[in-house]
Amino acid sequence: QVQLVESGGGLVQAGGSLRLSCAASARFVSTYTMGWFRQAPGKEREFVAAIRSGASTNYTDSVKGRFTISRDNAKNTVYLQMNSLKPEDTAVYYCAARGGIATMRVVEYGYWGQGTQVTVSS
Questions:
Q1: Please, which contacts does 25-29 make with residues 24 or more away whose CB atoms are closer than 8 Å?
Q2: Closest Cα to residue 56, out of 101, 4, 107?
Q3: What does the pLDDT read at residue 111?
Q4: In 3-state terms, what secondary structure has residue 86?
Q5: I need a labelling partner for 23 at 20 to 30 A (CA). Which of 33, 89, 94, 114 fits?
């Protein structure tokens, strides 16, 4: 059973930075598409970023230029570096994985972590 464990969330002031980590229990980070999603209170879960096995990346428009997704295959870990954080980035952030091409659709990711809270104060 594949397990994904997120860490790195916390409280930060607007304009600050955080780096989220997603550690996988199996050696598939290098071959699967890994994604980050977020869910704010009262809102649907939404796509944030994804990285394919070939290292190509995708971002939702609202985070382009501020967030960077990357992975360390040796550590079986995916990261989300978040800079210039805004109050509207406040949400629970989830790591996800799928064995196919990158997609922004929540339903197409079969593996999920438990989430980590990110709170950005104004």
A1: 25/1, 26/2, 26/76, 27/76, 28/2, 28/76, 28/97, 28/99, 29/71, 29/72, 29/73, 29/76, 29/77, 29/78, 29/97
A2: 101
A3: 93
A4: coil
A5: 89
Q: Which two tokens stand for residue 6?
A: 């997120």
Of 91, 122, 117, 82, the closest CA to residue 9 belongs to 117
pLDDT of residue 102: 81
DSSP letter string over 1-59? Answer: ---EEEE--EEEETT--EEEEEEESSTTTTTSEEEEEEE-TTS--EEEEEE-TT--EEE
Gap between the Cα atoms of 14 and 90, Å rounded:
10
**Tens digit of each residue's pLDDT (9 = 90 or more) over 40-85:** 999 999 999 999 987 899 999 999 999 999 999 899 999 999 999 9
What average pLDDT score do residues 15-19 get? 98
| CB-facing half-sphere around the CA of 41: CA atoms within 13 A | 5
* CA angle (109 as vertex; 117, 112 as ends), nearest 5: 35
